[in-house]
Amino acid sequence: MSFLAPLFFAGLAALAVPILVHLTHKERKDVVVFPSLMFLSRIPYQAVRRQRIRHWLLFALRCLALIFLAFAFARPFLNRPASAAPVRGIGARELVILLDRSYSMAYGDHWTRAVDAARRAISGVGGNDRASLVVFDATASAVTEPTADKAVLTVALDRVKPGAGATRYEPAFKLAQRVLAESKLPRREVMLISDFQRVGWDGRDSPSLPAGTTINKVDLADPKTSNVAVTSVDFRRDYAEDRERVAITARLVNRSAEPRTGHSVTLQLNGRDVETKQVNLAANAAATVEFAAAPLPAGTTRGVVRSADDALPRDNAFYFAISRGQALSVLVIDGREGGAPRSLYVERALGIGDQPNFRVTTKRLGSVSTSDLAGRSLILFNDSDLPGGELGRRLVEYVQNGGGLLVTLGDRSAPRDRPAYASELLPTTGDVPIDRTADRGGTLGYIDRSHPIFELFSAPRSGDFTTPRFFRYRSITPKPGDEQLARFDDGHIALVERKVGRGRVLVWASSFDGIWNDLPLQPVFLPVAHQMAKYAAAYADERPWSIVGQVANLPSIFRDSTAAVDAANKADYVAVAPSGERIRLEGTARRSVELTEQGFYELQRSGSRGEPRVVAVNVDLTESDLTAVEPQLLTSAMLARAGTDSASSTIEASTPVDLERRQGFWWYLLAAVLLLLVGETLLSNQLSRRIAVPR
Amino acid sequence: MSTNAFPGVQFLDPAVLGRIGNLELVARTVVEGFLGGLHRSPHLGTSIDFAEHRQYMPGDDIRRIDWRLYGRVDRYYIKEYEADTNTNFNVLLDVSKSMSFGSGTLTKLDYARTLAACLAYFSNQQRDRVGLITWDEDLVEIVPPSAKHLPNVLHALARATPQRTGNIELVFRKLREQFKRRSMLLVISDFYEDPGKILDAFAQLRGRGNDLMAMHILDSAELEFPYDGATSFEDIETGERIPVIPEYLREQYRTMIRAHVAALEKLCGDQGVDYQLFDTSMPLDYALFAFLSRRQFLQRVR
């Protein structure tokens, strides 16, 4: 029960009046005439001035009348509880039970209480009512259609368990909105059973429930919570004598007002405890735990960082899957034999860094064979002619199958010497280089910073492209479909991209050798070279983990070689969830699987006996913040946008009849006050007569 | 109202008597009913009982010479009787405002004047001279004692109206010279005064050889204090008010009024004053019987 005007409870202070009256014995107005006060005046007055309360019945009547009066003015109304029984005589109702099954509901006894509340709501469904059970976390689904069959609802409820998802209220209310909108029953009611986490509602998008809808809340939030979560894991790799080791650092957050000392954290790799450490966590603070570096075995390593148990177990484990570093194999073709090599700068640039690690092989054009193309992620023609013959044909196939090709132009790469297939890979370039020495070199006038290559430099002061001077470059005439990524200040194209098959071709209009420009001497050279190489090679950073709710695109995961691409596109897949559920993905329409469970998913092509691909999935850690939103804010927002009248914008919107029914207690209270006052009048009159005349 | 304290006697409700306007009728009703129920004479102060013979002295009434004795001894002797003359019976009635109090239909003054009328009537029947003095803070009305003054006494009783406060000490001092010869003095009052002062006042009269009787008239409300609820009590004479919570001082009040009555009774007994407390709810004839029986008993003792 709540009150519309609780301020009227201040009226209870009036209880002091009867108390004082009954304690102080207010003198009556009618005076008793007595023959002589000779004896009365001898009795000390103070001794009888204040005594205990007398006339208890009269006192109780007066106090009760005041209390009832205050309650009546406070306008009590009934919060239909979770166990609300059907109210008869005012029509059937459409009840939608929204049951939060986000992983935070596993905190303490929340889930038990939630199920109990839902069970009570189901038991209150009347014969003419219909109810449906909707479970939600980040998404919402109706586990039953609207039905009056309590058995169906109960069985469905028994099957629901807390999931691994985060809380989002919007999908749940949208689904409830749809169910209620389709209903023709006169009363509509939503019962929201949740821990009302603040993260579940951004306060902006709120679906509008139909007019007259009542929202009943079952608030499971605890005012004081305690939770420690492992929020992230960081990897630091080092290489020693072809052995790769990884040092893992975990970050823990203590989301409680009490500090934790000696909190144990354990690192597991491939199911084996590697190291356990103790950490002290201040209240509402984070701490990091660094584990000793461990060698990475071949294949995929499944790792888990586990924190000690607490009331919310889901966020105590952080899963990840890592494998040895994926080095990009780069073949640099440094022109034909004879003449000085010109790949020093680019070799040095690619030789730096470990994300990714570039394995650079430099060869002269004459020494390149078709076998040199195999296994390459990128082939860089550094101011070099293109090969002809079989090698040229294989080069085209290489690109079409997804290989990367980066071509820089200089004085050794005259277009007149190119083979015929070159036009398929490269745009037309000018025979005569454009000489800008007269004006002290040109600069880059336009860079497409939205492109992945230059996206890195989109932030202010993240790369100065005005300093490199370009003294010579070749003009590029793009074909339709070619994408211009950078231009010189005179309008000539500096960098162009062409998609060939599944491969990418980048053509840089100048050289990387420091002769036609001074770019290799500028700070931006190294990141630009890395970005070009990674983009052309279609390199994607390895994702050690995913989040529940994300989707795993299987063809991209299995695209480990150009030869497997076609097969992969035609293959069926099998995904094994952490719970052991096998999900078969057949046909080209099903190429992805939604990650709904926490743990390791194993993905494999049907019929393949190789090692499965492993995807680690973690829960959304925003959910580990158990801070609750005021339930009334949430429900008010859902009702305020409903377009209903002003009454429905209150927390418990209702039809006028229902509203009056649940707020009509004040009538009874006032009637009780009236009866009490009548009784008080009769009793006090009787007492007055006894007082006025001697007995 | 009836009681079986005295079998055969039907007592009269004072309230019923109060509705009879004629005091003489009331007095006759009470006295004759009382005597009729008594079945024997009270023998109060007869004047025919022979006491002794005395030698004739010049100046004596020759009608009182016992001629039979003269025939035997040839000397003149006078016959003397126990009470050779009628007694003065004076009622000293308190008509102060406190006597106007009554919790029922009968005030203390109503009860007192009925009582006085009855006794005056009774005494007049015995050929006593009856007189009346009403007083409050001063003498209000005086009816000299006379065998023919019963109607005057009754009229004076009927006229008595409580108007002022009472002052027994002052009044009785004034009355000291009023009674030239020994009298029966009946003081009827509610005696709201210190017992010591009351007895001092009595001493003013008793010192003259008067036979003093005190009738203490109190309403039952004054004795029981049956009030309830916080209220103000106003002194009927002075108008003074005090706040009172009766239920909390009832017992103290009762104790004090009982102590007052007991003190009066004791002090009166010590000084040879007949004292009797009358509750206005008590039947008049019962009260009379109780008083006269007690007085007869005391006379025998003395």
What attributes does this structure have?
heterodimer; A: 695 residues; alpha+beta; Rossmann fold; Immunoglobulin-like; 5 domains; 8-stranded mixed sheet; 5-stranded mixed sheet; 35 strands; B: 302 residues; alpha/beta; 2 domains; 6-stranded mixed sheet; two-stranded antiparallel sheet; 10 strands; elongated; disordered N terminus
Task: Give a short summary of the structure.
The complex is a heterodimer of chains A (695) and B (302). Chain A is of the alpha+beta class and 695 residues long.
**Biggest interface pair, counts:** A-B, 32 and 39 residues
Q: Any idea what the CATH architecture of the largest domain in chain A is?
A: 3-Layer(aba) Sandwich
Task: Count up the helices of chain B.
Answer: 10
The second-level CATH architecture of the largest domain in chain B is: 3-Layer(aba) Sandwich
The best one-word shape of chain B is elongated
Sheet-strand content of chain B, in percent, reads 15-25%
